[in-house]
């Protein structure tokens, strides 16, 4: 028996996948569009907390930290941020006696407390959690990863469906036919837009996947194991053999998350260095002034300087022995391998930071374009859908099309969560849909 065209099969998969992931894509696109302007939004919301009038000599960090602790009524200090310029307030992060994570803003010249924020209720942090994990922790992270992976498949299948099968005119392939009736108009708005946005969307999806807890973590480990990770020169002495990595003790750039943390040397009689001394050492390293100082997590922990500002080239992570106040690891963009540098640039572009306003507007256009493609795709299906049926084109079993089956297997290996989802889809189809007449008629008639 002669095999039929694979076009209906790909169309069918494209439709089903699109309908399932569309609600999540809208959430990711909307939250992503907002998050692109995080710094601008927070600069406006917290302008009275951020900005101070420069004047006089700055107070010692220890005085400002004590002021923050007294303001909170006690607690454990976790972070100190001196501010990137003389008109910026100092931030002190701490866990109060109720277990809440607070950020306290202080005028470094007058010791005036400008305001206190509960980190768990900061609007942009909420947006970030929704965008990264649907505010559902690890499960949400895996769902977002799965949606991103399936969106890549959607783009690839969409490009196949878009690709002109004959020598068509340029209209309808690269430009829109807006005067050809509703059906053609909606088709072009969906398909032609998909073509023009495809490359940029793939970039944003792949760079976003670097943050995911499964695929992204796997890429980090692969980069490190391949020799593109952490060069020995970044440590003073031998590289540590530690089960603790930097993301466990501080908020750092993606490239530094798996950086092993050396222990502070617990010499008898040593006391923890004061934040004043640590701040002086931080200034002497010459890192970007937007850095945070994260406090040690225990007796063998280290102070961590972390900065990942707008430009990837300014990223830095520095570990300081909490007793001797000496630098024991210094990891910067220049130390990244070619792959690490590429990923670092991808992340800052994804966040809308690397090229300023142009970068933000570019990301915003991509988010709006994604929403438009989801909306036009859903509208076309809804208008064509027969009553009581799914309306997907009839096609042969994927088993009869070895090339497509092989492609899905490869994608399932590259993106393991896709592979798991394909197995689940197959089981649902075999043991539920095909064994239920109502469902079988709805999906296959």
Automatic annotation (TrEMBL):
Entry keywords, A to Z: Membrane, Transmembrane, Transmembrane helix
Magnesium in keyword set: no
Transmembrane segments annotated in the record for this chain: 12-37, 143-163, 189-211, 361-382, 403-433
Signal peptide as annotated in the record: none
InterPro entries named in the record: PepSY-ass_TM
Alphabetical list of PANTHER family matching this protein: IRON-REGULATED INNER MEMBRANE PROTEIN-RELATED, PEPSY DOMAIN-CONTAINING PROTEIN
Protein name: PepSY-associated TM helix domain-containing protein
Species per Swiss-Prot/TrEMBL record: Corticicoccus populi
């Amino acid at each position: 028996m002669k095999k039929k065209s694979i076009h209906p099969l790909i169309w069918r998969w494209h439709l089903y996948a699109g309908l399932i992931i569309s609600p999540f894509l809208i959430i990711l696109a909307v939250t992503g569009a907002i998050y692109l302007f995080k710094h601008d939004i927070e600069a406006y919301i917290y302008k009275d907390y951020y900005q101070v009038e420069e004047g006089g000599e700055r107070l010692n960090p220890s005085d400002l930290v004590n002021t923050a602790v007294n303001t909170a009524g006690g607690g454990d200090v976790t972070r100190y941020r001196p501010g990137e310029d003389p008109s910026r307030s100092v931030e002190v992060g701490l866990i109060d006696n109720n277990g809440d994570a607070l950020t306290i803003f202080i005028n470094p010249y007058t010791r005036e407390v400008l305001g206190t924020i509960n980190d768990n209720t900061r609007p942009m942090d909420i947006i970030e959690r929704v965008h990264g994990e649907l505010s559902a922790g690890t499960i949400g992270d895996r769902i977002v990863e799965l949606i991103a992976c399936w969106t890549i498949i959607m783009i690839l299948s969409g490009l196949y469906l878009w690709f002109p099968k004959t020598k068509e005119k340029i209209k309808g392939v690269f430009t829109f036919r807006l005067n050809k009736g509703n059906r053609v108009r909606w088709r072009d708005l969906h398909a032609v837009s998909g073509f023009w946005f495809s490359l940029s969307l793939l970039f944003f999806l792949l760079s976003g996947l670097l943050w995911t807890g499964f695929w992204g973590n796997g890429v980090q480990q692969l980069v490190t194991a391949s020799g593109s990770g952490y060069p020995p020169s970044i440590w003073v002495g031998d590289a540590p053999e530690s089960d603790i990595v930097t993301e466990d003790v501080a908020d750092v750039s993606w490239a530094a998350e798996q950086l092993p943390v050396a222990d502070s040397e617990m010499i008898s009689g040593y006391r923890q260095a004061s934040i004043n001394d640590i701040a002086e050492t931080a200034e002497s390293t010459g890192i970007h002034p937007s850095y945070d100082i994260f406090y040690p997590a225990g007796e063998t922990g280290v102070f961590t300087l972390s900065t990942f500002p707008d430009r990837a080239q300014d990223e830095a992570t520095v570990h300081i022995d909490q007793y001797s106040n000496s630098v024991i690891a210094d990891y910067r963009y220049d130390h990244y391998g070619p792959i690490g540098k590429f990923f670092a640039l991808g992340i800052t572009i994804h966040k809308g930071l690397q090229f300023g306003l142009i970068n933000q507007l570019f990301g915003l256009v991509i988010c709006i374009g994604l929403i438009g493609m989801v909306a036009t795709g859903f509208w076309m299906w809804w208008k064509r859908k027969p009553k009581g049926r799914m309306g997907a084109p009839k096609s042969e079993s994927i088993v009869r099309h070895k090339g497509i089956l092989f492609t899905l297997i490869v994608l399932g290996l590259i993106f393991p969560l896709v592979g798991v989802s394909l197995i689940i889809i197959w089981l649902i189809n075999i043991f539920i849909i095909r064994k239920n007449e109502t469902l079988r008629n709805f999906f296959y008639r």
